[in-house]
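Hi R.,

Here's the chain you asked about this morning:
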Amino acid sequence: MTSLIQPRTVYHRATGATVMNGVDAASAVSNHPLEWSYEPWTDEVLARAEANMRREAELNAVPIVGALKPESNDGP
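And here is the predicted structure, written out as tokens:
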């Protein structure tokens, strides 16, 4: 495991490799997964990032069980 303050190489889709501290690298990859990656950009890396984004959107679209349960005014 690398320290979060140690330099880390990340890859931007347009500009290529960049070295930044681990905290900034983790933030960039986490918050902008279609721009930044820990791996050089290939078609496979892009497809995996897009699939992860679609999966996350699907999971966020499903309401929490019981969250939309209508209230009953009939009493107990």
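One quick note: The CA atoms of residues 6 and 21 lie 5 Å apart.

Cheers,
M.
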